Amino acid sequence: MKKIYKALTIAGSDSGGGAGIQADLKTFAAFGVHGMTVVTAVTAQNTVEVKGIHVLPPEMVEMQIQAIIEDIGVDAAKTGMLYTKEIVEAVARKIEEHKIKTVVDPVMVAKSGARLLLEDAIEALKSKLIPKALVITPNIPEAEVIVGYEIRSIEDMKRAAKDIHELGADAVVIKGGHLPGKKIVDILYYKGKTFEFEKLKIESTNTHGTGCSFSAAIAALIAKGKRIPEAVKVASEFINRAIKHGYSIGGGHGPVNPLVELYEKSSKYIAWKNVSEALKLIEESPELLQLLPEVRMNIGEASMYAEEIEDVCAISGRITEVNGKLRAAGCPKFGASKHIARAILSAMKINPNIRAAMNIKYSKEIIEACRKLGLIVASFSREEEPIHIKETEGASIPWGIRTAIMKSEKFPDIIYDLGEVGKEPMIRILGRNAIDVVQKTKKIGEILMQINKK
């Protein structure tokens, strides 16, 4: 029987769904871990402010923990908003009683500025809870409260991590997002060693729930048996992507997107499935043979959060003619076509809903057929391509697609160019998905056959 890993969050509820137990449960799901909750407080909040806090009695907090332990069990836990001294002490008792592997996120202040840990609870955090922590994950302002001095550099972070370790935590992670610069360095101090995890800083206001999701990711990975350095490294990379693809909702700090990995995996399967079905349609459509270019044909679809060629599914070896019929040289595969991938990725940057493309040969008659169908046609000229673009590997197609789209009054269905020496003239058909693209192409083929009969 497959083992079900179980992670527990002991934290507050965020009515806006961006932080607290809501963010934690999303993160647990993203890592394939069954999530459980102990609610410490109910907040009325949105992306702008915390309007109210209703704190649960510490006895109820303990009862929730006990109920889960008695029946389900806990592989790892994390704490978030604890708010009062009494809840901090109650949680510390239960962690000690049941020897729970716990990641402590010392939540003190909400993104909106509201206090989430009372002043008199800070000492209890330091003396009662931190000594029970397997990992503690303060950001720089939180670490400054704990150690009592300013942190202004990576060296300060390393010093603070060691000082917090002296309070009893096995491992200390200090998050470097509050330091200025284009890069973030997270510091881990564990077993006498200091580890640095460097990443690019994502400029975004969608950062609500960052600390919650980061600590939840570490807890989920520890629940699955990962070592602490590995768990911190994976969680650090995970949270950067969650920030990058956060949700621009509300009038304040939008939430991060901890489910981005799940969405990406499912959308990759959908892209592969669509390309597979599109290929079947192509091979069953004789009217498309007349559209085959000399360099052969390909079709591709990108995943929802595609960023690079490997995120675009296309036909390995392209589509060619075999005994008078269109046939694929290989199977649908991610990273199979650089040209189609670059075209799709360039279009997606301007319109994220356009995630598929197909190349066909150019002729005036085909462009005429496109216009008869009411398709929006745009073009670019390779003669206008800047020298530095021509000299940069892989830059021509992105430049051309971007140029054609920006010149067009409406977002185009068709982008063509007349080629140049060594470059065949080409038409690219854009669409929401691979099947949408093939349907457009089939109509073009049918119209072209009618034009050629006249």
From TrEMBL:
Gene Ontology CC terms: cytosol
Q: What is the superkingdom listed in this entry's lineage?
A: Archaea
Q: Which GO terms describe its molecular function?
A: ATP binding; hydroxymethylpyrimidine kinase activity; phosphomethylpyrimidine kinase activity
Pfam families in alphabetical order: Phos_pyr_kin, ThiN
Q: Which InterPro entries match?
A: Aldolase_II/adducin_N_sf (IPR036409), HMP/HMP-P_kinase_dom (IPR004399), PM/HMP-P_kinase-1 (IPR013749), Ribokinase-like (IPR029056), ThiN (IPR019293)
In this chain the Thiamine-phosphate synthase ThiN domain maps to 274-442
Which Gene Ontology terms describe the biological processes this protein takes part in?
A: thiamine biosynthetic process
Please verify whether the record's keywords include Thylakoid.
no
Q: Which residues cross the membrane?
A: none
The yes or no answer to whether the keyword Secreted is present is no
Q: What is this protein called?
A: Bifunctional hydroxymethylpyrimidine kinase/phosphomethylpyrimidine kinase
| Organism expressing this protein natively | Thermoproteota archaeon
